[in-house]
Amino acid sequence: MEARPQWTRSRDASRGPGGQGFSWHGDLTPWNISRGPDGRLLVWDWERFGTGVPLGFDAVHHFFQRALRRDDPATAAKACVARSLRILAPFGLSAAEARLTALHYLIALADRHAADGHTPLGPPELWLTPLADSLEILL
Length: 139
What we know:
Residues 1-13 have low confidence and may be disordered. Helix 2 (57-68) packs across helix 3 and helix 3 packs antiparallel against helix 5. The protein is mainly alpha-helical. A two-stranded antiparallel ribbon has the order 1-4. The radius of gyration is 15 Å and the shape is globular. The N and C termini lie far apart (31 Å). It has helices at residues 6-9, 57-68, 73-82, 84-88, 95-116, 124-127, 129-135, and strands spanning 22-24, 33-35, 41-43, 50-53.
């Protein structure tokens, strides 16, 4: 059996090494990444970098932002939770942990927008609250 780093085996998705939360870029999207001439990935726009978040926030954000290019916010949010297990599979999360991480991410994004004083996705009451209410029984 292949050994995995301890943090990927963690059953507590919000705790990283040393009991702290994980870090994330904060806006990891296709338009903030490019392959460099030597094949390495270049990532920019780090002004949203943060710590203390659950494992996988960047992966969920990347999916959600791509989904918003084709779907309205409510549909993209539902897709984010529906596909959370597949999105977060590389991190070793259970289905319940993946759903919770996706919902936690969506709430954090709505909080960030509120703190910035704008609602680019519309009021969370329209795209987030109905989803959170529908998941309550699963969480």
